[in-house]
Amino acid sequence: MYKALELQDQLVLITEKEKKRRKKRWFHINELIETEKIYCSKINALYNEIAKPLVDKNIITKKDCDIMFSNKLTAILMISKKLTEHLSEKFVTPYEKYDHESLIFYEIFQKTAPLFQHYSQYIKNYKQAREYKRELLQSNPKFSNFLDEVEYTPKLNG
Fold it and tell me: Over the stretch 45-83, which tens digit does the pLDDT of each residue have?
């Protein structure tokens, strides 16, 4: 009888430990989803408030824009939206409902992982893009003025 009570106490302890572990995991999952939503909105604002208007208003050419953003901004925006959608769809109920978060993450990242090559290309071009931006700032007054105007746009800050 003593061993049965001891075993029952251990089961309760394990259950409480598991609840804490799941609650902690759920916190991190939600943090990831919220961070990805913010990142997605920032990339969307970068595209809609800077990249697209620069070309639409003929301030710079599409080629200039592609050089500055590695021709990857729309791809990165799409990846971020897809990842946010997948995470938000899969993790909608309270943490107690999930036994297989790792498997769910694996499935989501398996779907989106091939798309992450766009990030590496974007990062590889970062130094060249900054140099190109610096050159445009010096040689194109319209570009410089435009960036001065949008610098404090609320969608781009905060």
Answer: 989 999 999 999 999 999 999 888 877 888 888 888 888
List alpha helices for 47-91, DSSP H: 52-56, 62-68, 73-90
The position carrying tokens 């781009």 is: 156
Closest CA to 146 of 74, 65, 76: 65
Q: Which of 92-101, 128-137, 149-158 has the lowest mean pLDDT?
A: 92-101
- 87 CB neighbour count, 10 Å cutoff: 22
Give CA separation, 126 vs 48, 69, 115, 123, in Å: 20, 8, 18, 5
40 CB-contact burial (10 Å; exposed 0-12 / middle 13-18 / buried 19+): buried
2-156 CATH, one of 1.20.900.10, 1.20.1250.20, 3.40.50.1010, 3.40.50.720: 1.20.900.10
CA 69 and chain centroid, separation = 16
What residue spans define the domains of the chain? 2-156
Distance CA 96, CA 89 (A): 16
Q: How far is CA 11 from CA 8, 15, 17, 45, in A?
A: 5, 6, 10, 50
